[in-house]
């Protein structure tokens, strides 16, 4: 892999000088230096300016921008500029425009108005990549290359005839012959059997539920088509440039259609965009989950936060501004969980366009603002944290995550619309967060041997090899917990017969003969005092011990929570949707049995994470409460440069980072 360049933590954001008069550029560089910015992404949406007419390139303005940035000591993440085609492409080649499932054309005027399977778009975009890379491969400002931008954000699924032909080609590659496809798709149902490849289309709007495996394969195909664009641009770059290549993923529970686990090895470093859900007062918890997931996609290596916001965004129903201190706290939370760079969208807030009300490092009101003062403070903080770069995050817990399981569990015609993929993931992760326990969010095929506890929420679709890996993990002494509606189908979305939870029956020592989903608003109680809703099932034990049973509802006396000793470990099954207090108690029991301890004891609402590089460790403490907190720590507080001898005080809403002076951080003491 081509390695990151430079020292310290990257800080900056998207820089779009083409939106501004040239006399503004010098002021931009001066303000960047004042804020401590050391990296900006340039040229992301500049295709129409770089190639104003087909085959005619104009690089003069970009030459001047890169030279100015270099003279100011600002490094550049240079984009391939393919993120959105210019209007002339659609005019000359209307067949490149994407279509929805109902046949409606998506026209230019926004962004990403192209069919991802279009050979014309591919050809013209790669011509642009060759031109940009050929000109700037040796420019001293360029330290990184940025492929496209948020691939698949708006055009991940295209149902046009070009995409239909590409889908058929993808299916031929996957299945080889129609007999295997018909078997995988279960086409004996509803007289769907195909006799010619030309009969197959994407799952366009149909009279009723489309074939579920056809839907699943189209989702796989669509992710692969976006990945193919990434790989095509990367291959051009690797023939021309020496710097590392990345693209910005969108890992978080709002974007579900790209399988980033399969993309991760196509880039030299994993980058991610993350934006808070402004409607969620616990948005910092979702931030932590996304950061831990990004780290999991990066195989535990440090990663780059390519975009987040200094304050409000422009695309949510109600765009809530960040309160004083939140910009800094959010940014350092990403660093705590493995980010070695903190970048924003964008440098200067736009005067025009769809994102003119999106916050930036330099707001419309200019540098004499709360936002820019916090930006400058953050720049100083990141400079003080330079030594943390390259370290990894301590985590004894793994949460299994698979985009294909997410796609599968949320297909139509299922037992309950209330069963969603994010629900139990959020619930279990939230319980760990409140307990102060850090988790890696990883693919089921990941080596689990280094974890004390593994959680598998709603792993509806699972492969045999991953089931076997979890069994070996438990037999070897691991503790695992699986939630309801897991192990139900194979990779073709075919039911695993013999009783639920299918693939996990033997490991869990249980067998369910029938699902009993609950009505909207209906609740049940368990004999341990817990309350649950959404889901129950008629479960029998086959070796597992019963930990809790229903006392009311459709299945009184039937087990709801079980534990099955397997080898030197144990596998727990959670057969219902426990409420938050019950989920917290469950996770506390699992953590205790697995011998997992928090990085340091801390009160609720205080986030504590440890990064480690060999014998050196750093303790990050983020106080999300409105009260001062104290917790045990010994070392040097890097953000202030002051020593702490045994106890650390963190004011309300503030952040502390301690370089610990002991190698053994496993023994933590309780706060008196």
From TrEMBL:
Cited InterPro entries: Beta_galactosidase_C (IPR013739), Beta_galactosidase_Trimer (IPR013738), Class_I_gatase-like (IPR029062), GH (IPR017853), Glyco_hydro_42 (IPR003476), Glyco_hydro_42_N (IPR013529), Glyco_hydro_b (IPR013780)
UniProt catalytic activity: Hydrolysis of terminal non-reducing beta-D-galactose residues in beta-D-galactosides
Signal peptide: none
Pfam families tied to this protein: Glyco_hydro_42, Glyco_hydro_42C, Glyco_hydro_42M
UniProt-listed Enzyme Commission number(s): 3.2.1.23
Keywords in alphabetical order: Glycosidase, Hydrolase, Metal-binding, Zinc
Ranges of residues in domain Glycoside hydrolase family 42 N-terminal: 14-384
Domain of life where this protein originates: Bacteria
Protein family (similarity comment): Belongs to the glycosyl hydrolase 42 family.
Name of this protein: Beta-galactosidase
Organism: Micromonospora taraxaci
